[in-house]
Design brief:
Elements (H helix, E strand, L loop, with lengths): L6 H4 L4 H13 L11 E5 L5 H10 L3 E9 L2 E9 L3 H14 L10 H7 L5
Antiparallel strand pairs: 1-3, 2-3
Length: 120
């Protein structure tokens, strides 16, 4: 292990798949669906990606996956949203107008959408 936390921080019922599936289910609740433009989780095992993406599909989420590699270490990022493209662009524009999001949102709407090429 590369993390020296206490036992309650290292274990979760269902492992990382169970944890992220519960996170996805919580994000799908009506009160949470629109609270975030994109939700995301990092997975340490490639075998965890398919069951998580499958549950997200069942929940009606638009999904995107990324693979990160550094040396011999690979991690998988799964991102999901319940907002359509127009809603995402509107939300990002609102955040920019209010000053939220800082420099990372300082791109055109069409460029932002190309940066995150989701499944819908």
């Amino acid at each position: 292990k590369n993390y020296c936390g206490v036992q309650s921080e290292l274990c979760c019922d269902g492992g990382e798949v169970g944890f992220v599936k519960r996170m996805a289910e919580e994000s799908a609740q009506p009160s949470m669906r629109a609270s975030c433009v994109w939700f995301s989780a990092m997975l340490s095992r490639e075998s965890s990606v398919a069951p998580v993406r499958s549950r997200l599909a069942e929940l009606g989420a638009k999904r995107k996956g990324f693979e990160l590699r550094q040396g011999s270490v690979t991690r998988w990022i799964v991102a999901w949203t319940f907002l359509d493209r127009a809603q995402r662009s509107e939300r990002i524009a609102q955040m920019q107008a209010s000053g939220a999001g800082g420099e990372t949102l300082n791109t055109s709407s069409s460029k932002r959408e190309r940066l995150v090429n989701d499944e819908g």
